[in-house]
Amino acid sequence: MAKEFNVPPVVFPSGGNPGSVPQQRRVPTAPFQPPRPANPNLPFMSFDIGSAPPPTSFSAPVFGATGVGIGSNFEDEPPLLEELGINTRQIWRKTVSILNPFRVNANLHEDADLSGPFIFLMGFGLFQLLAGKIHFGVILGWVTFASLFLYVVFNMLAGRNGNLDLYRCLSLLGYCMLPIVIFSALSLFIPQGGVVAFSMAAVFVLWSTRVCTRLLVELASCGDEHRGLIAYACFLIYTLFSLLVIF
């Protein structure tokens, strides 16, 4: 049995397409203008972009020649090593003075530094690494302990008149490690534990002991009368480092 449905009639707008939507005309609005201040003396900036005239020319920014900005001059800047306090010429002169144990110029070592000793210690550890021994931590630890030991011994012997500070003691001890570094390099070509190795170790230990003792006595006053005891302390220190090379 069929049912009948009442469908309302469809009415289309007059003068248009059934599928078209009537468009509304947009009314132009005025540009935004902020409220003007009550005081006429205050400056006022207009935000009306359309009323501003377009720019006719563009000028690039000009940097002054006062060393600020892109045009700064780096020719007057000191070298990086000089800013870090590393004097390569002074390190080379000190190294050459250590190579001659009979004519050591103590005046070159008045200005203590740790750049040269650090290079020698790293070279010593590198030669030990080439021999199959990893002793970087041992070397740095022994140098620190040896510097404290030599500092205490010297100041106890000199008494109140001793003027050896720990920084200079560490610098002298590190520079006098150069013969031990040379021995460590030569030990790569000789059998370890033999008579030749012990003989060479004795020569290089005496070399380091003589140079370090002379520098300590000449740079730090009131140590000449205790030269033998200072030499004995230096001999023990460098013998300890030579044993790292032999064994």
From TrEMBL:
Q: Which family does it belong to?
A: Belongs to the YIP1 family.
Q: Which domain of life is it from?
A: Eukaryota
The answer, when asked if Ribonucleoprotein is one of the entry's keywords, is: no
| Bilayer-crossing regions | 136-158, 170-190, 196-217, 229-246
The record's section on Pfam families has: Yip1
Cellular compartment(s): Golgi apparatus membrane; Membrane
A Gene Ontology cellular component where this protein is annotated is: Golgi membrane
Q: PANTHER family per the record?
A: GOLGI MEMBRANE PROTEIN YIP1 (PTHR21236), PROTEIN YIPF (PTHR21236:SF2)
Which membrane topology term applies here? Answer: Multi-pass membrane protein
Q: Could you tell me which residue ranges the Yip1 domain spans?
A: 99-245
GO terms, biological process: endoplasmic reticulum to Golgi vesicle-mediated transport; vesicle fusion with Golgi apparatus
Does the record carry Transmembrane helix as a key word?
yes
Q: Where is this region: Disordered?
A: 1-35
Return the protein name: Protein YIP
Q: What are the UniProt keywords, alphabetically?
A: Membrane, Transmembrane, Transmembrane helix
**InterPro entries per the record?**
Yip1/4-like, Yip1_dom
